[in-house]
Amino acid sequence: MSATSTLHPPGRLARFARLCWRRKAASAGALITLLMLLVAIFAPWIAPHDPNEQDILSRMAGPSADYLLGNDTYGRDILSRIIWGARVSLFIGVTSIGAAMLIGGMLGVLAGYFGGKLDRLIMAVMDMLLSFPSLVMGLLVVAVLGPTTLNLIIAIAFTAIAPFARIARAPTMAVKQRDFIEAGRALGYSDLRIMAVHVLPNILDEIMVLGSLWLATAIRTEASLSFIGLGVRPPTATWGGMIRDGFENMLDAPGLVIYPSIAILIIMVALNLLGDGLRDATDPKLRHE
Amino acid sequence: MNNPTQRPILSVENLTTEFRISGQWHPAIRDLSFQVQPNETLAIVGESGCGKSITALSIMQLINKSQGRIAHGRIEFDGRDLTACSEREMEAVRGDALAMIFQEPMTSLNPVMTIGFQIAEAVRYHRPVSKREANKRALELLEMVKIPSAARRFDDYPHQFSGGMRQRVMIAMALACEPKLLLADEPTTALDVTIQVQILALLADLKETKQMGMVFITHNLGVVASIADRVAVMYGGRIIEEADVVSLFEHPTHPYTEALLKSMPRVDQPRTALHPIAGQVPPITTDMPGCRYADRCPLREARCDVSVPPLTPVAGATGHRVRCWVRAPSPMLEAVAS
Q1: Is this complex's ipTM strictly greater than 0.85?
Q2: Domains annotated on chain A, with CATH
Q3: What pTM value is reported for the model?
Q4: Rounded CA gap, A170 and A117, in Å?
Q5: Which of A9, A108, A226, B248 has fewest C-beta within 10 Å?
């Protein structure tokens, strides 16, 4: 640490911003993700048309001045549907990954902290969950519970719990060995407090990195489930649903499939760039490069 | 300073702590008994592996249950037997009336929390105070352990502190609830000599003002001389000599204590006069019926290998006891011999 940084300790946010700036790809990823989030939040004001408004005369029409990306099979505005679809995709992605992070992270910390039988039990269940591909698992859960938005969130969260448990467990085991944990016990702190206040903040960066990467997977799973008809019910606009609707007429109007696919591609690439950047930024070995 | 009529704050009786090594339990400390009075510093001295750290962890009930156990004995602290306490009861005692500081100040603080938060946390965990009050108390504690410009350093992270300052922070956290007994496990070993002196002076000063008992674990006899009131020398899991600090340095009686003092480099003697102790500590897996020092002892006799000598008072000195057949024969045996 240089003398200047000790005199004026930069805030966490400032330091984070500086790190992001140093890694252009990650910043681009963060920027695009942020933009997508804003688009999703302000969809009603940004979208040029009602996403469910049908203009029968312009069915499967190409791009025009009024409909920038053209119209779908029912004559609805593709751009507006993509904008509204971002809402659904990101909402489902964020909530399901948030739930998976919480539950999986907790299970992983418990397993890593206590070890022994509890660890073996939790990790055996997690290994079992991991053995299903996430799409198959999502399919299974939605098929059993029925295709509602809430069930979709539950299904996607379910597929992501195991990786979060795994990613939380390993650093917990490492942190547990460190002297400040024993010092905490010598101060009388309970296991729960040590886990929540002293272990968790030390492993949070690794969970966050996985979170950004899995957000992309969650959005893809949502799109896949919508594509096979197990996602959010029509006529609600979702990216996967749009691809499904346009699939039959793909050869006549390729835009029906291409534009929502590009939307998925952009958010996936952006989230992966952001995740890689976060990983580099939180890796102490790369921090001072 | 040592008032014998006073009730001891800590009284350890016949404490035996065992560890499981390849399926078998082996004692790391054996029938350990000692007492600490309020405002008294007992130094426990011994080389690596003699069981001094295990003693501290046993008192704190922090022995890892999957590997070790307290086989028998009592640890009476402040009127209650800690070996009979539940984990929850121990959590209430630890960090409150009974506190401990460790050898490694560099790693004993949570790197992602500020210094101020960590001290305030120690206060709030045991006292029903508001966040504001806890912060105020934490700042007082930082000032008490003499952190320069404490208010400005309050929101610093551990990596911005030097080793000596971090150990001061550890001391501040340990003293947050004004413990009646402080266990210090080699708190100065990892520090520079100049910093060591400051920390020792600070601990001695705090002990005096807070009327706190202290168990100071070290292998450094120089540190013992400067801080201890009484000394217990441990070897192979047993106390082999116990005396007040002056008697121990002037009349070391056990051959091990003697050898330990001789092996210490001194500026007032020629450099060639350094005498290392030959051999090494027997591993805890070896079972010896007699004195565990016999292998390395120049005074070894046949009876040393037969049974463990009792801790016998040394003639003509109060409170000086030694565990040696040769050096401290019991009065009865002496009578027979004459």
Answers
A1: no
A2: 28-46+68-287 (1.10.3720.10)
A3: 0.78
A4: 16
A5: A9
